[in-house]
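Mods, move this if it's the wrong board.
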Amino acid sequence: MDKKVSIIIPIYNAEENFKRCIDSVLNQTYENIEVILINDGSTDSSGVICRRYMEKDKRIVYKVIENAGVSNARNVGLTLATGDFIYFMDSDDTIDLKHIEVLVKKMNNSVVAVNASINTINKNTVHRSSKNETITIEQYKNDFIINRYALRCWGWLLKAEIAKKISFDINTNYFEDSLYILEYLFFFRDGSICFTDEVYYNYYVNQESIVNSYKKVHKNIESVLYSIKKAEEIYSRNCTIRDEYKKYLLQREIYLIENISRNLRFSDYDMFFQNEKLKKELLEIRKVNNIFRYRLFIFIVLKNKRMFLLIYLKVRKISKKIKDLLKK
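Not the wrong board. Structure tokens:
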């Protein structure tokens, strides 16, 4: 008999796009699936939609919980999963018709995880990111930052016996899915990871959600600092940390902080510039970072140059627009 795949989908106020997600899952050519829908305290009609689908398809497991964030919702889904494999999705994304079938076929005793390629859909544009190779766990540990291997939790077919032993970190609201995947993959000492371009995960960019997430992170900016340190801890615990990895993490940290500053409201400026943990971290980053753009940003924040920050962000925005135009 075909092995069962547990597909875990957290839901929060997803009424607008959830139907396209659940339809793409229920129409899979691979039928031995259980679809675990975790309603994270939605206040719209998401629950009504879930119950309608549950009445039509017995493969659906539906649970309503108090709103506590996507990490908690995924953890609840893991406790309910009874499949041989685990697969995570976001509630506004879709997968190809043969998606699960292809991933399951590529999973075997030596393969610890299979990762689909990604279509990033932003309004009317589609960016295709594909990889078609099988690498060892050791190669992944050595090269995953340099090669930008996927670190989102969705798009991965994982072995349930290990995936259920790991939980999403509820102490942070950013980068939490990456921390989970790192913990899962670094659990293994040998084996291989399969990347395939036969099927794609269709990731729909939600600009409003991105802006809101940065505003939310700002209320607890330590969340970003915590996640970066946690990633470094996971990596160093499992293998020798490389200079390339340290450099990547520092750049990632500055990138996240810069995006937080871009979405600040005027009333948030005092809280941002007076955050002592942030300033302490920026001082450490300045010691080892030699990229002019980031050094300038750090100087502006440490010196509390609010007007300069507005000018800096405006120039960055114009620069990005110019780059986008040149690409076309």
